Amino acid sequence: MMPIEVAGESLRLHPEKAVFWPHESTLFVADIHFGKVAAFRAAGLPLPPGSTSEALRRLDRVIADTSAQRIVFLGDFLHNRDARAKQTLTCFAQWRSERAALDITLVRGNHDAKAGDPPGDWRIDCLDEGELVGPFCLAHHPEPDKRGYVLAGHIHPAIRLQGRASDGLRLPCFWFGQSVAVLPAFGEFTGTYTVKPKAGDRVFVTADGRVVEVSGLIGR
What we know:
seven-stranded mixed sheet
């Protein structure tokens, strides 16, 4: 994991596109979009099942690597109401029942407004944006908040790295600005949005099981 100091706190960037806060044993995950593939299948697209179990497998890997006791989902937990397919709900419910000691919080995002809160027996504490935890303001939309350093998601950030020739590479990234950090989307089939960091911002890409800082390569 890649260490970084933010708002006076030490964080760790995990290659599975999550942020760990050791001081509070808390894992931050953005835009997991559970059930998105199920929603696409409901719309008639022939996508294979299994995206929820794969996302949970990756989440388990991060929990094992960090020993996190709490997960904060920074919005867009369920993709929409069609995401509430039986297979998706059963898969997560079983996972949750086997991890009863894990504290889980959801900061509601725009997709959560459409999908509704998760089932009550999943024991997920659902909050609106703006909750303060230490120096951090928990959000989904990456907008500054004078009360604290914002941790957010929403835009599924990626950065384009230009090669020496005309080739280039676009990779998911963690984007740390002066007052807002934007996490990459944890979920698959989510797409990305190419961001344009400002001078002084720090950017880290995830590739091949590693987190690499590319701040000095931006704009070359």
